[in-house]
Amino acid sequence: MSNKISTSWFGLKGEARRAALAGLLAAVAAIVPARPALAWWGEVHGWITEQAVQHLPMPLRGFFEANEAKVAAYASGEPSGTHFINIDNYPEFFDGTFPRELADAQAKYGASVVAANGLAPWIYDSQMTTLTQQMSGASTITSWTVDVVRTAATVAHYIEDLHNPLHLTKNFDGQLTGNNGIHARYEGAMLVPRLNEIAIAPASAEFLPSPLDFAFDGIDEHYHWVDDIMAADTTAPKPYDDTYYESLWASTGPFTTQLLQEASVAVASSWYTAWVNAGAPHTFLSHSADSDADGEVDADDLAAWAASFGVDRVGDADSSGVSDGADFLLWQRQLGAAVPGGVSVAEPAAGAMMLLAAAAGCSLMRRLKTAAT
Question: In whole angstroms, what is the distance from residue 206 CA to residue 238 CA?
């Protein structure tokens, strides 16, 4: 279910915006469903997704920077499926024996029970497989900007929801502890007006050996914040006005900020993992040797190739799995080729080319010498 608010709301600033959101709280809480189908509000999903782009390596970051608005807009929507798991309905969760494979969980509890308690980790894992397949099979820029972008947004939405403690519990709306309506108060009315106060620190996307285990490891780490959210709601002064939200933020803000930081890195790591598993293709680039994804094959790409030689896949122009000499040859062939918009990259003089190659060679020799010692 999507939480849609008139766009006029977001023309408000500061205290006026907070007061307006607080004034709608009763109406929003009234439409919270009987089961936890809500997500981080759309504005939060889009914001996390935008923040994730900075954590990616080139050239993948270049692709997502160019399509940031589109993927964030898709992530702000509500993809089909259940975006939660009531993990505390499973006693085995608390002793660390909950079966993580879907088939094992269904065999133990029954498919209908597992479905009723939410399928978010398994849907995320399935979407990761789909994203990998799409990246591997995408042969044109159009394939990337349509299919890949949509699935990347779905992956983002699901892993973001799994960083929301209220998506991990049967007490998703505080209905079991007298905290009715906390879902909308915590993830929307409190958080949306404060997004511009939160700074996400740059980090590096990491390869996820098992996206499913990554999702469940996160559940293990984030679940305990449920009690803290309920306690903060209980102790915050009522009614639900600015004073209430200031108190709720004071109690939950530090760990919520950390959850948002981790969610943004999780999104980037998910995209990066799918890309690596797809063979790190460069088919989203007009020219595969455009290692910095700036639309030009030039000296900067040679420097990027030299820095990634034998280290990572940034300069892997032929998608062989490693940045090597064959990629340098591709760079040579593509240097001076037409770039989007019909602009041509001027080929440097032979002397300049030799200097660039020599500099790259020196960089490689230093790295190889260091590795040997």
Answer: 43
